[in-house]
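BUG-422 | component: ligand-complex export | severity: low

The export step for LLP jobs runs without errors, but we want the raw record kept on the ticket for reference. Input record follows.
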Amino acid sequence: MDHFHLRDGAAYCEDVPLAAIAAAVGTPVYVYSTATMVRHAGVFRAALGDLPDPLVAYAVKANPNAAVLATLARQGLGADIVSGGEYARARAAGMAPERIVFSGVGKTEAEMAAALEGGLFQFNLESLDEAETLSRVAVSLGRSAPVAFRVNPDVAAGSHAKISTGAASDKFGIPVADAPAAYARAAALPGLAVQGVAVHIGSQLTSLAPLEAAFTRLGALLAELRGQGHGIGVADLGGGLGVPYDPAIPAPPGPAEYGAMVRRVAGGWGARLVFEPGRMIVGNAGVLLAAVIRVKPGPEHPFVIADAAMNDLMRPALYDAWHAIEAVRPGGERMTATVVGPVCESGDTFAVAREMDAVAAGDLLYFRTAGAYAAAMSNSYNSRPLTPEVLVDGDRWAVVRPRVGVEALIASDSLPDWLALP
Ligand code: LLP
């Protein structure tokens, strides 16, 4: 459920007309709903029921805007981070250090040190080499690093290949079979405090079966490690729950079904459970609002050329992702069109032969489910300005990231002295 709806024939975010935001800020622009984020954080927490003190660590990579992080911090969420930059952003937005989990396959020594000095709940280690390095960094700082190993359960997530992470051929985690030796080695390292196990098998999962298979393997490993004398009190179950993009296909299992499965499989482990949801929290809390530059005839269907492009929303070009496209002021007529952006690549296509609201040059339209992995992955390809972001809360709204215009892009380059202009 989200808070983008039609009122008197025009699209609103909560109590704010999208057209008013477009008029004030220009297009393209991302618009986020506070109410949707708050609702999703609450629904996820409620789905976990009476699990003792679960830690919900929002995956910052999905949407790292400070206003988004501050909204979620106020809901009591922590952060799952994968870089020193995400650590700094989470802390700057008020995320409590004891709710921060550091994931990622390539943490540097500098990133490890920054997180150790600032404080965190746990590092999720992805190799023995990383464990050795972290121990060394921790000892040099006079600290002890709380750690889990992320294991690779070798399950097929059933998601898009580029966002599946739990198969043996993926770069993530350590093989389950290697875990006992890795834990024995880590326990002997002076800078580490072994406390948990972790798994994450992919994103936009539309079935609970692979998650259940991965959790079951994790539970067996947890018992085995305890049998070997490790005090494992934490199990991080990662993120990955899919969200509905296309209303024409059955919605993925919701948080309630996920929570029931988790409680059934892991409720008896006697471990504090950690969750790393990203998309589920913010996906449907955002839209990308754009204007139609012009409509150009095509061989079968017209091309609707929007002023948003693949640099603003990469998901269709990268993953063939489907995003709903709706007119801000639908007139009732429909058209079949191919929706594209102005970037000079044929991959700059949002939708092919899409049945949609009829639009013409100058009309506003919006791409739904653009709160996660959308602004976060935007760039300035084709020297297009970086898209601004707006946060709505009831009838108030604010720009939470301004448009980064071409002057700023030019100013961030510099000429070597031999090319200096006279
Ligand atoms: N934890 C870890 C270790 C992760 O790598 C991820 C996502 C998450 C949690 C959050 O997963 P979520 O709950 O959001 O599914 N750019 C892609 C998605 C990449 C996901 C990367 N890892 C997309 O636009 O679909």
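Assignee comment: Attached the raw record above. The chain has two domains: 4-31+283-411, 34-280.
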